[in-house]
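2024-03-11 09:14:02 INFO queue: dequeued item AbrB/MazE/SpoVT family DNA-binding domain-containing protein, len=93
2024-03-11 09:14:02 INFO validating residues
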Amino acid sequence: MKSTGIVRKVDELGRVVIPIELRRTLGIAEKDALEIYVDEDKIILKKYKANMTCQVTGEVSDHNLNLANGKLVLSREGAEQILAEIQGQLVQK
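2024-03-11 09:14:37 INFO prediction written
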């Protein structure tokens, strides 16, 4: 685990402010949902992605493609974008 050197206090309502630098780096916008995990003595926050959310476009649909044993979910548009990028990389070599 990588330390940022940033320390924040919990307020009287149990809230902690996530610094803007970290939110920008991790792509967390205002009103985004975060999942909360516990690992022994650690609290882990992760940007929430609904099941069947395309990892390229962010589109949520039951019609999205579930690939690589569930490790990759793509919408049709997302799959086309990745396919074009792969073909472009192969042509360059």
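2024-03-11 09:14:37 INFO annotate: The longest helix spans residues 76-92.
2024-03-11 09:14:38 INFO item closed
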